[in-house]
Amino acid sequence: MKEKTIKIEEMFLSPYAKKSIDTLGRDREEAPCPMRTEFQRDRDRIIHSKAFRRLKNKTQVFFSPEGDHFRTRLTHTLDVSQIARSIARTLSLNEDLTEAIALGHDLGHTPFGHSGERILDSLCPTGFKHNVQSRRVVEVLANNGKGLNLTKEVRDGIENHKMSLNPSTLEGRAVSISDWIAYINHDIDDAISSGVIKEKSLPKNAIKVLGKTSRERINTMIYSIYKRSDGQNKVEMEEDVMNATKELRSFMFEYVYRLEETVGEEEKANRMIAGLYDYYKNNVDKLPDFYKGLIEEYGIDIVLCDFISSMSDKYAVYLFENLFIPKSWKL
User: Fold this and answer.
1) Is-contact 101 159, C-beta < 8 A?
2) Interaxial angle between packed helices 239-252 and 214-229, expressed in degrees from 0 to 180 and rounded to the nearest 10
3) Which of 46, 238, 274, 331 makes a 20 to 30 Å CA pair with 199?
């Protein structure tokens, strides 16, 4: 099966794609799998990791939404994976590598979305970035401290998935632009469903270029990438589509991400995370044994970021309540 996949890659992938046989490999040598390529193995390791499962209870945009249909960090990750695979297929890139990067790109994300990331970044002397933490999860923290021993291409794509960065493969770039496509369009859906914005308030010029619905906009963006990038060493949208996408993103920052109600909840999350950080910094002995074992090598602040960023929203609330909220006295 693996040899069949390798032959298919040689026959059909773009000369700019990263073929599995050309991987730069892993930090630790392993016996090859007779059925799966190295990138397929990476994808499977990520899916079966505890960090991946925890994404289901981490905020995407809206804290503790009432209803089952709002996006979480896990559904966002699946959205990115689906879009990135579509782009990889249209450009004849390596879908397995693309999928592995997409599924792992947010493993290091904090509870409470980007507000959690911002407060950890302000608390930790060395700073905190979720993309860097995602790579740390797969290299150091996952699998009980052994890491997942992923290929270098997947780790590079995970760390450099932000649009401002430059992943080394086109598959990594496909994930970067898919992250934008996914969160802009699906956050619009959630914002409309919650009543935060109305569909008619979306910027008219951007909607004229991209389409009225998320499905139309995503199709427009992917098709634009195909027209601009097919057969070339790049993954880019056409200029007019990219400008419309940026306009939508700016709209979301102004009317959704910085909404007064959202900011108010963000302040609560900030106080919660800051309280947990301060408590465990002054009570190191209360940390779980796994994290205490990392302090000598990495220092307390890095380890506190490891511990707190690993939490789901629900667990962070549970821990805060147990540490700081008085309980009723029972005889």
Assistant:
1) no
2) 140
3) 238
Q: What is the pTM of this model?
A: 0.94
Other C-beta atoms closer than 10 Å to the C-beta of 30 total 10
pLDDT by position in tens, the chain (length 331): 789 999 999 999 999 999 999 999 999 999 999 999 999 999 999 999 999 999 998 876 655 545 444 678 999 999 999 999 999 999 999 999 999 999 999 999 999 888 899 999 999 999 999 999 999 999 999 999 999 999 999 999 999 999 999 999 999 999 999 999 999 998 898 888 878 889 999 999 999 999 999 999 999 999 999 999 999 999 999 999 999 999 999 999 888 876 655 566 778 888 999 999 999 999 999 999 999 999 999 999 999 999 999 999 999 999 999 999 887 665 5
Contacts of 294 (CB under 8 A, 6+ apart): 145, 302, 303, 306
Strand partners, 59: 72
Provide the 10 A C-beta neighbour count for residue 315. 14
Contact 211, 205 (CB under 8 A): no
Cβ-count burial of 44 within 10 angstroms (0-12 exposed, 13-18 middle, 19+ buried)? middle
